[in-house]
Amino acid sequence: QVQLVESGGGSVQAGGSLRLSCAASGIILRLYNMGWYRQAPGKQREFVASITSRGFTIYPDSVKGRFIISTDDTENTVYLRMNSLKPEDTAVYYCNAVHKTNSRNEYWGQGTQVTVSS
Q: What's the pLDDT tens digit per position in 20-35?
């Protein structure tokens, strides 16, 4: 059974930092492209960051230069380091895994809340 379990969310003031973790079980991380998405109240889920098994990363302009995605294959865990947080970063953050060669194998975590106050 595949599980993605996020942790590390919380409340922080603007300008602060948080590190989210996504512990994966039931999959081998290096066989998947991993990503983070977020969803704010009343808004659609949006892409935040992704990383391939070779370490290639992609970020939208909204977080580029502030967020860093990384993986630890020995721990089977994906991280999202978030710096210089803004109130508009407030959302539920979700971990995502998509198999490199079969995109039908896709999994989501349950989400972790991040709240940034001004």
A: 999 999 999 989 999 9
